[in-house]
Design goal:
rod-shaped, 199 residues, 72% helix, mainly alpha, de novo design (two linked rop proteins), 6 helices
Length: 199
């Protein structure tokens, strides 16, 4: 056997092993990134369900002739604004996510004010359609929270994969950037002030 053949075989084996390693890193990153994008789609789907329910809730509440129109207007406007904010799942930037979170936070705030003001309308509190919608909204809020948590878990797995050594050497070359996590609303770490003074 020729002496030059052994180094050539060793080099071919090393190149093949490096190629398989690089392909493995790339394919795993693609799969994890797609899982995170799907998780984001589930977040948007949960928010869309809430928006759909809000429309029905507003119609039900509008039936109460003396209900505060300003409260309804706030909910309608916040919902309209939230549906206009879009996030590109292929490139979720911190700015896009912050804008999305702010719009959804405004919907949550307006919806909370609406549900609190309903307490003064016994005919609404007794309306079966309203009670059903209120129950569905509560369930949807739980789904939103679960969807956001799952999105963050998917992003966490993906980000760890592209950041650990030696994967980090190739992740940038292959175009894999860190994805943004969904963060809690500013100030949510503080317990809310509850005032039971109804004077």
């Amino acid at each position: 056997m020729k002496k030059w053949l052994i180094p050539v075989i060793i080099i071919v084996i090393i190149v093949f092993a490096l190629y398989r390693w690089a392909v493995g890193i790339n394919n795993t990153a693609v799969n994890l990134q797609e899982d995170a994008k799907t998780s984001w789609s589930n977040v948007e789907s949960a928010y869309q369900r809430r928006n759909d329910l809000i429309g029905n809730l507003v119609k039900t509440v509008q039936g109460a002739a003396d209900f505060e129109r300003g409260t309804l207007t706030d909910v309608i406007e916040a919902r309209a604004k939230a549906t206009q904010v879009t996030v590109d799942p292929t490139n979720i930037t911190p700015e896009q996510l912050a804008q999305f979170q702010q719009a959804q936070g405004e919907v949550s705030s307006a919806l909370s004010r609406l549900l609190v003001s309903v307490e003064r309308y016994p005919e609404l509190k007794a309306n079966q359609n309203f009670l059903e919608l209120q129950s569905q909204l509560e369930g949807t809020e739980n789904r939103i929270n679960v969807a956001r948590d799952r999105y963050n878990e998917s992003v966490n797995v993906y980000n760890k994969h592209i950041k650990i050594f030696p994967n980090s050497l190739l992740a940038g070359i292959f175009g894999f950037d860190e994805m943004t996590r969904y963060e809690a609303d500013p100030g949510s770490e503080k317990a809310p002030d509850v005032n039971f003074d109804f004077k």
